[in-house]
Amino acid sequence: MNSNLDPFTLGSRTFSSRLLVGTGKYESFEQTQQAIQASGAEIVTIAIRRTNIGQNQNEENLLKFLPPNHYTYLPNSAGCYNAKDALRTLRLGRELLDGHNLCKLEVLGDPKTLYPDMEETLIAAKELVKDNFEVMVYCSDDPIYAKKLEDIGCIAIMPLASLIGSGMGVLNPWNIQLIRAASQIPVIVDAGVGTASDASIAMELGCEGVLMNTAIARANKPIMMAQAMNLAVKSGRLAYLSGRMPPQFYQASPSSPMTGLIGQQAA
């Protein structure tokens, strides 16, 4: 499909690729660059607390390998466990990127599961929207919280498919569908994707995009997996737009016509 016929809009920006890719966990910045190029992604996430984009003057800088004039950066507040820290982190990201106001809000509630703290997330989201950020928000797959975040003014809802880094895939497709059906803004599955079929399933559910990091970075061949994810997101989107046939439980339906067969006598 011509991407111009199916644009992906986030707030004030429009993209062709519906695959968003993280920049952590790779062996080197060179490998990060190669994988993201292979993925076809236009949006790359960066953890401000863990990735150097200028705050450490004497270290290699990610901006050298993924220049901001070629990619849209999505600073995130990974590693933050309260609204105050998340706000400070994302404001630092905006400063380092010369006023760039697109961000991914992430407030964690538990260091073992990395499950989001939704009360702190709501507090931070309200402040960021007031501060003129375009907020994409990592959240639980709770339709009620998703609606509250949309009502606050976030530009995208990002429910987890399963726990961050778990590779377990979409464990609760029903809640993802509930969120998608009730939302007037993009829904992007974030966290838990393990392989290409997981990404395709997320897109077939009607999500506008998929964000992943570990599934590519920790694959045996990250560059090849990045290519697979590129195709999977496109395939899932096409399948969703095509409209699948209704399931026919307990009833077979032959592919070929049953009338006019060779040797069949007319009644």
Question: Can you tag this structure with a few keywords?
Answer:
9 helices, three-stranded parallel beta sheet
User: Given the C-alpha coordinates, what overall shape results?
Assistant: globular
Category from helices, strands and their pairing: alpha/beta
Order the strands across the largest sheet as they lie in space: 5-4-3-10-9
Radius of gyration: 21 Å
Overall pLDDT: 89
What is the CA–CA distance across the termini?
A: 47 Å
The number of distinct β-strands equals 10
Poorly predicted spans? none
- Residues in helix, %: 25-40%
Q: Helix count?
A: 9
Q: Which sheet architecture does the biggest sheet show? A: 5 strands, parallel
Order of helices and strands: EEEHEHEHEHEHEHEHEHH
Strand content: 15-25%
Reconstruct the topology from this structure.
Layout: E1 8-10, E2 13-15, E3 19-22, H1 29-39, E4 43-47, H2 62-65, E5 72-76, H3 83-96, E6 102-105, H4 118-130, E7 134-139, H5 143-152, E8 156-159, H6 173-182, E9 188-190, H7 196-204, E10 209-212, H8 214-217, H9 222-242
Parallel strand pairs: 3-4, 3-10, 4-5, 6-7, 7-8, 9-10
Antiparallel strand pairs: 1-2
Helix pairs in contact: 1-9, 3-4, 4-5, 5-6, 7-9
